[in-house]
Amino acid sequence: MMKWNLYSRGDKFFAIVVSILIGMFTVATLYPFIYIAAVSFSSGFAAQAGRVVLTPIEATWEAYGYILTDPQFWISYRNTFIYTIGGTIMSMLFIIPGAYALSRPQLKGRRFFNLFIAFTMWFNAGLIPFFLNMRDLGLLDSMFGIILAFAVNAFNIILLRNFFEAIPQSFEEAARMDGANDFQVLWKVFVPLSKPAIATITLFCIVSRWNGFFWAMVLLQSEEKIPLQVFLRHTIANLSDDDEFAIVQTAAGFSAETVTAAIIVCSIIPVLIVYPFIQKYFEKGILLGGVKE
Amino acid sequence: MADEHTTAGGPPVQEPLIETPSSEGRLTRFYDHIRREWQIYLMLLPTIIWFLVFLYKPMYGLQIAFKDYSIFRGVAGSPWVGFEHFETLFSNDQFLRAIGNTIKISALNLIFGFPAPIILALMFNEVLHASYKRTAQTIVYLPHFISSVIIAGIVITAFSPTAGIVNTVMGWFGLDPVYFLTQPQWFRPIFVGTGIWQEAGFGSIVFLAAIAGVNPSLYESAVVDGANRWQMMWKITIPSILPTILIMLIIRIGNVMEVSFELVILLYQPATYETADVVNTWIYRQGLQSGQYDLAAAGGLFNAFVAFVLVMTANTLSRRFSRTSLW
Fold first, then answer.
1. Mutate to test the interface with A, among B26, B34, B128 (most CBs of A within 10 A)
2. C-alpha span between B123 and B203 (Å, rounded)
3. Which residues of A255-282 are buried (b: 16+ CB within 10 A; e: fewer)?
4. Is pLDDT at A112 greater than 70 in this prediction?
5. A56–chain B Cβ distance below 8 A for any pair
């Protein structure tokens, strides 16, 4: 390390102290996850007595056995995949053509349309009118309603529009010479050139769909439609004050704590699997996010 | 002008006469334009309809804030009551408490949550070992991607009175167990602390990018002058990223009314409403749980109005101080 040799003693000391502080913050970030994983593999007695600190105590799979044999867990897991994949595709169907149209200089009323979309970033009607609107549209307790109603937001459209606007005209002209229409220009020129921006927006969509909770809780009543996050919430809320469960668990070797921890682990695993792949995109993406109207 | 638009989509009145500078010429030019460029209008159409149906139609529905709304009469059919709901709101202790709590939580977020990612970015900038830095960054960005339900689940488990790690550790030091989540005085520290734990790492990305943009020759000449890293951080890095800090601060101020209420709903309980209940959670209980839609919508309108004014003020300030407005 070249730079290190140039450092004075004071600078070396400074760099070491900072590295230690960073290490501490990193451990503090990671520890809750390790703790939850340890709880999930511990016995109900050990978890309830607060004996779990870093590693599983009286290691057991019982909590996972309880969760993984619950059909509702699998139903909501499947639903989360449906919402995530369906919702992301739906978003792209709106956002990509919409952003393309808004980036075209020949679009009449372009200023108006841009303002029409950007205005929703500064002002929105709020929870109640949105909910009543969903009810009036007949989209309560509807999976399609969830997928459609959260498909678009102004931020993503503007982000992609800015990216499209920055594409040099020469790329487009070549395609126009070959007689390409707008759909072909979009699909064969703009989309391939905008992969980083589209990947970023896809990432935002996937994350918000995977984690989506509030509106799913409010809008969905049927158990067979709820996503994993709502199931997780129900479980956490119910287990802790369910006396019947308290009797069953003692015999079975798990507790509300270990079951909650096990569901948390199960729902984090897919995030951990895709996380390394998406990391390079979100670092770029957040910088693309310097949104200007 | 309006006529032009309504007839433009229809069949042509006559053959295009591009040379004629009459109104009919303009009309046909517009028709030509649509015929040539119809594809981009077709592409825009679904998005416009979506915004109308899902974002603008609720704005029309916001009028129930001034009406005695009943489900059976609908938005348009319910009778007007003027500012009655707003009078109720501002004599409602719970609503006023919710406004106070929102501002207090936001203020704590600003004081403790805002500097955290800046300090973290400045520290990352001083770490020399590249793979150590990379690994640490990968880990501290992670909680941003975890859902608030899971975050709440972790908090509930960790702060549980008998089973939680926090009370276990307190036990080592001979402290009595505390049921944190039922005690109003603990809600805000736990909530704000959780926010920092979740977002400080991810928030540092913006500042790291700003630091990466600092002209390296500034550091080179500082080295020649014999400055140490600590001095360079204060004299070069921090002044250079000041515009970014300012913009992020202004965005924060613009979002004062937007406490992440999803996490509040997941963590609070009636015992802690006193310190935890924010405007959006009040609206949620009042409207979606108790069915007082009109009163709750009035609360929402007030909140949206304050937020709108704050965002606009923030942008004006940003424009004035940094010559870089947000839009």
1. B128
2. 13
3. bbbbbbbbbbbbbbeebeeeeeebbebb
4. yes
5. no
B296: nearest CA partner in chain A: A128
Distance CA B45, CA A203 (A): 25
pTM: 0.88
What is the tally of structural domains in chain B?
2
Asked if A90 reaches chain B (Cβ–Cβ under 8 Å), the answer is no
What per-residue confidence (pLDDT) applies to A250? 60
| Domains of chain A and any CATH numbers | 30-60+228-265 (no CATH), 81-219 (1.10.3720.10)
Q: Would you give the DSSP letter of residue A220?
A: -
pLDDT digits (tens, 9 = 90+) for B208-247: 989 988 999 999 999 899 899 999 999 999 999 998 898 8
Same domain, B158 and B129: yes
Q: Looking at chain A from residue 235 to 274, which residues have their Cβ under 8 Å from any Cβ of chain B?
A: 236, 255, 257, 260-261, 263-264, 267-268, 271
The pLDDT confidence band at residue B12, using thresholds 50, 70 and 90, is very low
Residues with Cβ within 8 Å of B285's Cβ and at least 6 positions away in sequence, in order, are none
Chain A contacts of B271, Cβ < 8 Å? none
Position B21 pLDDT exceeds 60: no
In tens, the pLDDT along B53-80 reads: 999 999 999 999 999 998 888 888 899 9
- Within-domain flag for B327: no
- Pair B285, B151 in one domain: yes
Which of B142, B150, B201 lies nearest to residue A275, judging by beta carbons? B142
| Chain A residues lying within 8 Å of B287, measured CB to CB | 127-128, 131
pLDDT over threshold 60, residue A290: no
- What's the rounded mean pLDDT across residues A183-199? 91
**Alpha helices, DSSP H, located in chain A:** 2-6, 9-40, 44-48, 62-68, 71-103, 110-122, 127-136, 143-149, 154-165, 169-177, 182-185, 191-193, 195-211, 214-219, 228-240, 243-252, 256-288
Residues B224 and B248 in one domain: yes
Domain boundary among B62, B77, B92: B77
Which of B30, B37, B44, B319 to probe by mutation at the A interface, max A CB count within 10 Å?
B44
Confidence of residue B322 (pLDDT cuts 50, 70, 90): low
**Token pair 């101080």 in the structure block, residue:** B321
Same domain, B130 and B201: yes
Structural domain harbouring B133: 84-322
Domain boundary among B20, B53, B77: B77
Q: Please identify among residues 93-152 of chain A the ones whose CB lies closer than 8 Å to any CB of chain B.
A: 93-95, 97-98, 100-102, 104, 106-108, 113, 116-118, 120, 122-133, 136-137, 148-149, 151-152
Q: Which residues of A touch B223 (CB under 8 A)?
A: 6
